[in-house]
Amino acid sequence: MSGTRGTRVLVLNSGSSSVKYQLLDMGDGGRLALGLVERIGEQSSRLKHTPLASGGEAREWTGPIADHDAALKAVAEELAKDGLGLDSPELAAIGHRVVHGGQTFTEPTVIDEAVLAEIERLIPVAPLHNPANLTGIRTARALRPDLPQVAVFDTAFHTTMPESAARYAIDVETADAHRIRRYGFHGTSHAYVSRATAKLLGKDPSEVNVIVLHLGNGASASAVRGGTCVDTSMGLTPLEGLVMGTRSGDMDPAVIFHLMRVGKMSTDEIDTLLNKKSGLIGLCGDNDMREIRRRIDEGDERAQLAFDIYIHRLKKYIGAYCAVLGRVDAVAFTAGVGENAAPVREAAVAGLEQLGLLVDAELNAVRGDEPRLISPANSRVAVAVVPTDEELEIATQTYALVREESN
Question: Residues 25, 154, 231, 329: which is the catalytic one?
């Protein structure tokens, strides 16, 4: 690999019909631009681009964008208008979010044909995500074949889990033949937040045990001992674990057999039910926590029950991970719900005083963009709100790797 020339990293997160992107300068950690292309393949495709370095206003347009190739070319054109084009010598690398790396990819990896083949081989365990990630990678490589491109995997942070946490209790040969085990997801967020929490406490990550609660439309918990993940709530897929916006989380597997035999539902119908029509939206018809809380304030019993089920599951995981870790130094709330929904944070730790968990009502009510403690002074366990930054984490890992490879 040729020597790294610049300090900029373009982070791409390619979905089946969307591309999110951010351009960061790793020299000072500043964001230069960010944007989103959505509804790719439709006549009403939409691109929103925000130049941050120049302080310019966001630009938005709609129109047909046929495919990811056209989407990335449109992104490149928008960046070029701000003097930040993909042909800039300041661009050191492109970092790609890849959802599933299996057991193969335990750290960020420079992309070559062998890496692409392995990501493709993992499609059966990530059929909704890896194909889209691959499309984005191939398109970006075609646009800049000379530039180092790095895959950063959602699952990588969780590959340190011991077999006792990663294995399901099913026949070992069957599990191995079909790669059935607990992989975990949201790894870049859990990695970033666990380190940021240690920094907030003024300690090295190796000294701190943290329970990270990534609560968004998708939600997951992790137990991090000394900077290393030892357990996480998501499993083979992002369906396991906490109650989420549209996903059921933990459930008796026999429910599936029951729905097939008694409900006469197909595999695809059950898949849709559990991934898109369950969780909060299945319980009360809304998956936006703000709307659920509004309905609760108006006395809506269905919304209240959905909230109670959500909190009950969350408390179970907090308690379980206290047991797994033995000593807990901090519980960190992050992502859309975790960062913004004070009632969720308050309810999640209510009644857990014996575990050292307390929330100060005034501190909890404060909103902000910086990491902060919401537990009373001198609490045995710190309770924190730590805004996640998955794009910065991907850029940091990408830049570190290309610098290392170029030396």
Answer: 154
